[in-house]
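quick one, 319 residues, struct below
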Amino acid sequence: MKHEQNKCSTACSRWHRNNSVPYKTSEESRTIKKKAIVIIFTLLFSLAADTLIASFASPNPFTNSRYSGETGAPSSAPSPIVSIFSIDKDKVYNTGTIVLSFNATVDEFSEGGYSSPLLRGMRIAESFYTADWLQNITPINISTYLNPESSNKLSVSLNLTDIPDGKHTLRVYVVAYGTITDPFHWYEFKKAGYSRVDFTIDTTPPKVTVFPISPIDSDVQLDFAVNNATSKYSYVLDGNNNVTISGNTTLTKLSEELHSITVYAWDKAGNMGTSETILFNVEAPDAFPTVTIAVASGTGVALLIVSLFIYRKKTKRPL
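---
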């Protein structure tokens, strides 16, 4: 029996030597721990990188943030650029109805994220205009004018009516919206741009006055006056063709008869003024007066000579 126990003890000792975990030194343990830490950090970094890439592909990485109202626009956000092209600067128009056409664009914008709030935009959301002849702001319904492929481009064309005479200033505004987002909130901000144009409305025609015409002969002086700055003059004589002139002029070689004349003037806005039609008569000049001298007879001449001789002798005056 004792021999069997010894055999069992020997076998058990051999099994333990073959299957037990070998003893590790402290240096080996530290090396194993370092390798484990490196593996764990590598796995965590890989997981974080995958999440980051997926989030950047999303328009808003802060998906759980809530709308928290309006805030001021950051200085880095672009303003819309507005360009009025249908109204010329300082031009004079002869109508109270003109077309307002303008284009507006705003740059797309994205900034920040994760380590700082995410700024996004911009999209055109509002437009309106102000004019000195109107008391209130006039909104523009931009829904029919926005570019269907992009909300950051706008092209508008509309009529402005009942504009009074005088010098005017018109301003067109376009407002773009953007957002600022952090992990808990998102805010909306606005950035506006505008364009200004000055112009004049003049629908009043100039007043033309023709001075009295006093013909002396077939050449007649035409003098007239206009109460406004003008760009062109003309006249119509006896219903014939319109003749352009630069100012007062002389009408030459008119026939001896009754004539009519009308003078026209255009101001710088294109308004035409018309004078009253003037009638005047060209007559033939009077004939040059002649003196008829009768020829005396020979007897009469002789008597005249004798009478003069006697008179001179009595008065003792020489002939």
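The chain has three helices and 19 strands.
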